[in-house]
Amino acid sequence: MNPEMMEALEALASERGIPLDALFAALADALESAYKRMPGAHEFSWVTIDSDTMEIRVFAQDLDEEGEAVGEEYDVTPDNFGRIAAQTARQVMSQRIREAERDLKYEEYAGREGDIVTGMIQQTDSRYTLLDLGRVEALLPQAEQVPFERPEANARMKAYIVEVRKTAKGPQIVVSRTHPGLIKRLFELEVPEIADGVVEIRACAREPGHRTKIAVGSNDVNVDPVGACVGARGARVRMVVNELRGEKIDIVPFSDDPADFVMKALSPAKVKEVLIDEETGTATVIVPDYQLSLAIGKEGQNARLAARMTGWRVDIKSETQIAEEAAYANVEWAEGEWVLDEATGEQVWQPAEGGPAVSAEQWTEAAAEPEAGAEIPAVSETGQAEVDESPADEVEESEDAEESDKADEADKAEEQGAEA
What we know:
The protein is of the alpha+beta class. Helices cover 39% and strands 26% of the residues. A five-stranded mixed β-barrel has the order 4-5-6-8-7. Strands 1-2-3 form a three-stranded antiparallel beta sheet. A three-stranded mixed beta sheet has the order 9-10-11, with helices on both faces. β7 (156-167) and β8 form a beta hairpin. α2 (20-36) packs across α3 (81-110), α4 (180-190) packs across α7 and α8 (258-265) runs antiparallel to α10. The longest helix has 30 residues, at 81-110.
């Protein structure tokens, strides 16, 4: 091989980003494949290339009946091997270079799962969106896209690497815009304290395109975790919101106390008290009446995100509801159960302390009986109730009497006038 070939290999290695050793190995494989296609080639043979002198040699060994190599190695290089093998090796060489490129691309991104990349939107349709990352393309499936987000062609977009697959056509990189890890990586880019490990994002809950809640904690007592994430006049968090196309972000301080953590997670609502039930995993939150709708949020969004972030089942109640439940619990109720009477086939009430069962009709009659001490109208011999005359009837009788007296006086006056 002449020095010009060596220069060509070095230029190819630099252009494609492939190590020179990989090119030598690919060339040796291509030459070996070309030699075995020649007539009279040995079955067990291989090609070596001296990197200093660029000398190509073909060696072979004999095989026994079991297919094992026996004897010493010997040189079987054809006289016109370089000229004959050049055309045959060209196609194999190209294939080996493509395979080496695919392996390098896969190795470059194989260890970057959970990292963030910036790409340019190349193509979009109803199924997926393609991002151009430079040497490779990333696939953004529809399921990993934010609802109602409209990717614009040739626009730059940051995405979170979910999976790197090795395929025959090269690495397939699957990215996401809805993964909660995207929030953490974006804050690492904007907040140096998070990148240095001084501030940590302890919990995160997200509804893509609408709202996100994160709980942050500090490993340094002199650093305010919430203030570090918000930045001066909200500059840091504003950059994250802009990248997420206006998605709202709530930043709350993390707490090891479950009750305090749930109370802070429901921010911006003001919580009066939190009752933790560890057996059922429920946190009962008591809020003032005017804070109930704010604590629940639009379509339950605030409560839902708080439950995801804290890991507790959040039950929000107002002070009025708590008072009503307490009053309801203090009411004495009859103890027993409704059972089926086998004789009549009707439902009857069986008291818990024992005694005869009460039918539904008897229960209704007992509930409708007048209270003790109430006046009951008397009943005459004819069966009709004797009802006292009302004051209105007395007034009507007195008015009739007055009118009759006036009529009598008028008649007397007329008689006296006639006599005169």
